[in-house]
Amino acid sequence: MGTTAFAELEFWLLVIMSMVAPMLLWRLLHSKRTPTRSTIFSLGLVLVVISGTAFYLLQTLAAQSKQSPSLADDALFASELTLSLYLLPALFAGIGINLISDRLIRHLRDSDDASGRDGENG
């Protein structure tokens, strides 16, 4: 391990997963005129995966920062500021879950309408 957690591969993976990947996904979504249902559902799944990966990387970096002699990474990964680092992945998870649930609800509503029922039970 290096002298600081900022030099570790996990830190750069965290930056890519938290900043670059969501921007690329957003750009991909807006590059199409009308995104399909499967595209939106896939975007939601990818956002949830990005969020889970970012949480894992933050946990790993927090453990590494406690073992490193550098105080700079301790100030970021092993202090109260760590909470702010978890907000972006939590936001991605919330958006991803919202997209997935919206697609599932619309699919169920469309299949209910196609079966001839008006949304009533029975």
Plain-language structure description:
- The protein is mainly alpha-helical and 122 residues long.
- It has one domain.
- 77% of the residues lie in helices and 0% in strands.
- The protein is built from 4 helices and no strands.
- Helix 1 runs antiparallel to helix 2 and helix 2 runs antiparallel to helix 4.
- The longest helix is centred in the C-terminal third of the chain and has 33 residues.
- The model has no long low-confidence stretch (mean pLDDT 79).
Give the strand content: under 5%
| Quaternary | single chain
- Write the element-wise H/E pattern from the N-terminal end onward: HHHH
Main pleated sheet:
none
Find the count of extended strands (DSSP E, 2+ residues).
Answer: 0
Structural category = mainly alpha
**Rounded mean pLDDT score:** 79
Give me the number of helical elements. 4
| Measured distance between first and last alpha carbons | 63 Å
Q: Report the uncertain regions.
A: none
Brief summary:
The protein has 122 residues and is an all-alpha fold. It is 77% helix and 0% strand.
What is the secondary structure topology, with strand pairs?
Layout: H1 9-31, H2 37-67, H3 71-77, H4 82-114
Provide the descriptors you would attach to this structure in a database record.
122 residues, mainly alpha, 4 helices, elongated
